[in-house]
Amino acid sequence: MSTTIFENATVHTRLGRSSTAGTRPPDAQAMLVVGQRIALIGSVDECRDAAPAAAARVDLQGAHIAAAFIDAHVHTVQLATRSLEVDLSAADGFEQLAQQAGAALRAGAGRTDTGWLLGAGWNAGTWSDRRPADLSALDHATGDLPVALHSADLHAYWLNTAALTRLGVDPRLAPDGVVAEAPAFAVQHEIERSIRGTIEARILGVLHDLARAGVAGIHDIDDRIARETFQRLAADRALPLRVHKLTIEAELDEAAAAGIRTGSGDEWLDFGGVKLFSDGALGSHTCFLTEPFADRPDSHGVEAIDAVELRRAIARCADLGFSTAIHAIGDGAVRNAAGALAASRGVAIGAAVPHRIEHAQHVRHDDLALVARSGAVAVMQPESCTSDIDMVERRLGSRDLVSYGWRTLLDHDVPVAFSSDAPVEGIRPLHGIHAATTRQRPDATPAGGWQPHERLTRSEAWRAYTSAAARTAGHGDRGRLATGMLADFIVLDRDPAVVDATALRDAEVLRTVVGGTTRWNAQEPHTPPVIAEPITR
Asked: What angle is formed at CA 308 by the lines to CA 307 and CA 310, rounded to 5 degrees?
């Protein structure tokens, strides 16, 4: 069993702790790791005295050690796909989107081996040009090559006629070429199936990119391509970080037949709950609201499943040994999800893994107590708050909702874990901590932060990305720096406890250590290999 001393650093055992009771004073300068676990945190002399003479020593030269991040909602297959897609995030309207797709086609960008042109990142919720999609404009720009342009929220595609034909979509069902929600997910899975080999080859690079960002563990939300790839990597002992794999509802029976249950697995790959969809997304006008959209007064969005059917789905998952993770963005969907989970409290699933509400972006004040009674963890994305500010005001108007309200949820005894929802947002947790603590964009707008009463302290935000995310997966032995915990930590070039918010956002992750082994080292940037950074909104 390997033994390593990481020394000559400031070990931040208190960052992310709700209490300082029993923690090591902040002047600890070394950490002794035996196997995958922390054996001692103390002075350099204390750790050297406790280690055998043959122990390896890593001199961190005055840097700062903190608990590594756990991203509680990631789409690795879609991150791998995103590396193949043309970045269309700068488009302002469908006309520009068509023009940019045509320019990419002429430049030979975004082309797959199976004949698709793939693009992504457009966000109609932020556009000043609000003219509707014109399929003929996209056809004119792109011709006979099938073109699939994925929205930033991953809930819609704009397809040209060649793509509609190739996918067997009746043009009468998508006269403008736009498909959303279930039809869009079907398009996504068909495209992923057609380029599966390329995706599988890139997933390891995605994991290395996450490690480079300081992430030691992820909760993956994608389908069997991800699951089977992780299983192969785990069998080969090649996973660079820990994976908690959720199951999509369409694959529930298949997963159960394979012996998968919530809580099954080991320290490198284990399994979580089943992803259920209660609604869509704000940007696609498909999240489910109790009042109509301010900019589309004839629509409440999409109620993908009502509270009664949700209760049945939760019970079915429990019968097969699974907890649930319910996607709910609009206040109507959050109410449905919380109500169904509250009514299902006490249903045994055989594992200490709580139910989850994914996103919980908009909540009615009257429903806060219901969300708390549900017992669910709110798995939220801080950067979506700062990305969506203008869209929220356009889509929802001045209605009184708790929007991206992590402070309010915590104050109402709702556990909160943080994540990226990558590739919807970027993969750097330090950027998410900046958003959670300032409610500002990187350019410091809006002044004072948007709805500043929802800001978290730095320690609270760090906890949401570490120990709270670990508990969301039923993991009590990670997410903190303490004796006996898994040795998953990062080394930063500056003090994460005292630098200002902008300086912390820009901090460099010098090293990411998972299970006592360095998985990213800035001094050796080409080992392991990485792929291009995914685009962000």
From this structure: 60
Query: Tell me, what amino acid is at 185?
Result: F
With residues binned 3-state (H G I as helix, E B as strand, rest as coil), the percentages for the chain, rounded to 5, are 35, 25, 40
As a whole number of angstroms, the distance between CA 384 and CA 359 comes to 9
Tell me, letter by letter, the H, E, C secondary structure of 72-119.
Answer: EEECHHHHHHHCCCEECCCCCCHHHHHHHHHHHHHHCCCECCCCCEEE
pLDDT tens-digit map of 230-284: 999 999 999 999 999 999 999 999 999 999 999 999 999 999 999 999 999 999 9
Checking DSSP bridges between strand 147-151 and strand 117-122, what pairing results, if any?
Answer: parallel
Element at 190 (helix H, strand E): helix 182-194
Pairwise CA distance, residues 300 & 326, whole Å? 19
Length of the chain measured in residues: 537
Contact 268, 238 (CB under 8 A): no
Half-sphere exposure of residue 499: CA atoms within 13 angstroms, side-chain side: 17
> Position of tokens 């298949």?
254
Each residue's pLDDT tens digit, 488-514: 999 999 999 999 999 999 999 999 999
Let me know: does 405 contact 392? Beta carbons within 8 Å: no
In whole angstroms, give the CA distance from residue 278 to residue 126. 24
CA–CA distance, 72 with 8 (Å, rounded to integer):
31
Task: Provide the 3-class DSSP secondary structure of residue 310.
Answer: helix
Measured between alpha carbons, how far is 7 from 238 in angstroms, rounded to an integer? Answer: 27
**Pairing status of strand 178-180 against strand 86-87:** unpaired
